[in-house]
TrEMBL record:
A GO CC term assigned to this protein in UniProt: plasma membrane
Designated name of the protein: Small conductance mechanosensitive channel
Entry's family note: Belongs to the MscS (TC 1.A.23) family.
Keywords of the record: Cell membrane, Membrane, Transmembrane, Transmembrane helix
Annotated organism of origin: Leeuwenhoekiella palythoae
Length: 286
């Protein structure tokens, strides 16, 4: 096959002409991209300032801000591609096909998005609530489009997909504002039950942060005659803010007062019998 320099020059000329014709579209697309990103950034700032001035729920603020941000970026992508010369009809067909493929590939992400919408609508919890979900206990730090972030008691951040949160059990410890504490106390069978109950009830009633009327009064009842102890349940109400401080103080002070009055709090013990070859038996207690 003979090499035709004229034909190659013709190809190069037409290719160069197309590149020159394409340069304005490319420059326009690049400018559209950078200007669009700048506008989106400004809009995001305005949205944050708007929410900062209004007393909206933090849960709603984060979700709507993320939704606006992603919607604007998708629209910008369409504008940039159109600027490059892609026909809108073809673009719609491509986006539709790509959307179907992406939807099938990212079913979990779509489920998380739907879960985020359900959380926003049903409001099982909000930012700042202490919840237990998916085996994690923590304070809700942020609810975004796809996941929810919790800060645990040990200050670790847990990220839980919204899809799982919206389809599983959630315990919200903060929504009602108050909680009932139920402590289990075990005393020996030889100890005076009435005296032990009076000591613990007196201790609870001394605490100013324990809630009374209209809430049920503190009470203590025998709940079980166990193998080595008589188990009692001490119950009282407190606000979420005072709950743990009361819980820890009553545990420590209650043990001290019971011991001062001679009430025995039993602990598990074992009798060990050792046999040697001569038939002698040695016993010890643990």
């Amino acid at each position: 096959m003979d090499f035709d320099i004229t034909q190659w020059e013709d190809y190069a000329s037409r290719f160069g002409a197309k590149i020159i014709d394409f340069i304005p579209s490319l420059i326009g697309a690049v400018l559209t991209l950078f200007i669009g990103l700048w506008i989106i950034k400004m809009i995001n700032r305005l949205v944050k300032k708007f929410f900062a001035k209004k007393d909206y729920d933090a849960t709603l603020e984060k979700f709507i801000a993320d939704l606006i941000n992603w919607t604007l970026k998708i629209l910008l992508f369409v504008l940039v591609v159109t600027q490059l010369g892609v026909e809108s009809a073809s673009l719609v067909a491509v986006i539709g096909a790509a959307g179907l493929a992406i939807g099938l590939a990212l079913q979990g992400s779509l489920a998380n998005f739907a879960g985020g919408v359900l959380i926003l609508l049903l409001r099982p919890f909000k930012v700042g609530d202490w919840i237990s979900a998916q085996g994690v206990d923590g304070s809700v730090k942020e609810i975004s489009i796809f996941n929810t972030r919790l800060v645990t008691f040990g200050n670790q951040e847990a990220v839980i997909p919204n899809g799982k949160l919206s389809n599983d059990n959630i315990i919200n410890y903060s929504s009602l504002g108050i909680r009932r504490n139920a402590q289990t106390w075990g005393i020996s069978y030889d100890s005076d039950i009435k005296l032990a109950k009076d000591i613990l009830l007196e201790l609870v009633n001394e605490q100013e942060t324990v809630l009374h009327d209209p809430h049920p009064e503190p009470m203590i009842v025998v709940t079980e005659l166990a193998d080595s102890s008589v188990n009692m349940s001490l119950r009282f109400w407190a606000t979420n803010d005072d709950y743990w401080a009361l819980h820890w103080y009553i545990l420590e002070e209650g043990k001290r007062r019971l011991e001062d009055k001679g009430i025995v709090i039993p602990f598990p013990q074992r009798d060990v019998h050792v046999f040697n070859e001569s038939g002698a038996t040695f016993s010890s207690k643990e």
